[in-house]
Amino acid sequence: MTTLRLSTVALMLAATAAPAFAQDADSCTTVRMSNPGWTDITATNGVAQTLLQALGYQAEISTLSVPVGYEALKNGQTDLFLGNWMPAQQKFRDDLDAAGGIEELVQNLEGAKFTLAVNKPGDEAGVSDFADLDARKGAFEGKIFGIEPGAPANQSIQAMIDADDFGLGDWTLVESGEQAMLAQVGRNASAGTPTVFLAWAPHPMNEAIDITYLSGGDEQFGPDYGGATVHTLARSEWVQNCPNAAKLFSQLVFDIPMENQLMGMILNDGTDPADAASAWLAQNPQVLDDWLAGVTTTQGDPAKEAVLAAIGG
User: Fold this and answer.
1) What NCBIfam families does this protein map onto (predicted)?
2) Which of 59, 61, 99, 206 is surrounded by the fewest CB atoms within 10 Å?
3) DSSP letter string over 262-310?
4) pLDDT(284) > 80
């Protein structure tokens, strides 16, 4: 599997004691990121935004579909992307590798998964594997609910339909945004309607909806129910020009319970992502020790003290 080379510039600066204003170029005060409209990336971007603002930076977050977001990163229109799901987005990584100029800063999440699932009525209809679906096409109305158009997972579903895998050649992919898709799944569950849809973790859907992840989709989504890792990518030029900010992102890692909590606050409570991040950090300040080790504010002051002051910790 072709992979981008790991960033070394930011990591080599771990022992550098010079303040950030002597390291980061003036252009680094605004950090440009993208969000494909997924709540998990909304949550992690919210954490990044909260930390950046406390350190004297500004986060500029653009909502871009997955293909457009990768093009923006490749073309220098954004600096970072915290949502490189692998192996689902391998073709985008291959494209970036071929173009050059992009580095992986860190694997920011492990234990993720991403594949098709059914709601409780779907499970009660006897579906637990991809191969169970077509015999029950009528109950599911021949529909598979995906996420936003252009998403790699949708492309995997459509490729499966086009190839008539599992006899699904006459099924239809229904594309919509994440929240609209989940709202439909919830309504169908309440109505007792079996539904097959794209599901993943981390996400509060795993607590809000009775979900059965389907086995049998290793070829389409990968083993272990589409087991995945998520990676942070950055422009090499940005890493070189902004070593203090890059060091922060090279140390910014998450876990499934944390993201579930943040996403629940955003989706279920309507909390602004940055506010959710501030509230979570105030309750879990211990994570700052590793995230901010060797990082300073833009004025060269200790990072942890600045963040604690900003979140009221």
Assistant:
1) ABC_choline_bnd
2) 99
3) HHHHHHHH---HHHHHHHHHHH-GGGHHHHTTT-B-TTS-BHHHHHHHH
4) yes
